[in-house]
Amino acid sequence: MASENRGLTERKKQILKAIVDAHIEGGGPVGSKYILQNQQLSCSSATIRNEMAELEEMGYLEQPHASAGRVPSELGYRFYVDSLIERYAMTTHEIAQINDLLKAKMGELDQILLAASNLASNLTNYTGIAIKPPVSAISINKFEIIYLESDHYILIAVTSTGSVKSKHVHTATPISQALAAKLANVLNQHLKGLSANEITLPIIMEMEAQMGYESSLVNAAIKVVYDLLNELDEGEMRVSGIDHLLQYPEYSDVGQLQELLGTLEKKEDILNLVSRSESQDISVLIGSESEVKVMNNSALVFKPIVKDGKTLGAIGILGPRRMDYAKVLATLEGLSGNITNLIGSNKSNGGESNGGN
Amino acid sequence: MASENRGLTERKKQILKAIVDAHIEGGGPVGSKYILQNQQLSCSSATIRNEMAELEEMGYLEQPHASAGRVPSELGYRFYVDSLIERYAMTTHEIAQINDLLKAKMGELDQILLAASNLASNLTNYTGIAIKPPVSAISINKFEIIYLESDHYILIAVTSTGSVKSKHVHTATPISQALAAKLANVLNQHLKGLSANEITLPIIMEMEAQMGYESSLVNAAIKVVYDLLNELDEGEMRVSGIDHLLQYPEYSDVGQLQELLGTLEKKEDILNLVSRSESQDISVLIGSESEVKVMNNSALVFKPIVKDGKTLGAIGILGPRRMDYAKVLATLEGLSGNITNLIGSNKSNGGESNGGN
DNA sequence: TTTTAGCACTCTTTTGTTCGGAGTGCTAAT
DNA sequence: ATTAGCACTCCGAACAAAAGAGTGCTAAAA
Question: What residues of B are in contact with residue A250 (Cβ under 8 Å)?
Answer without folding.
Answer: none
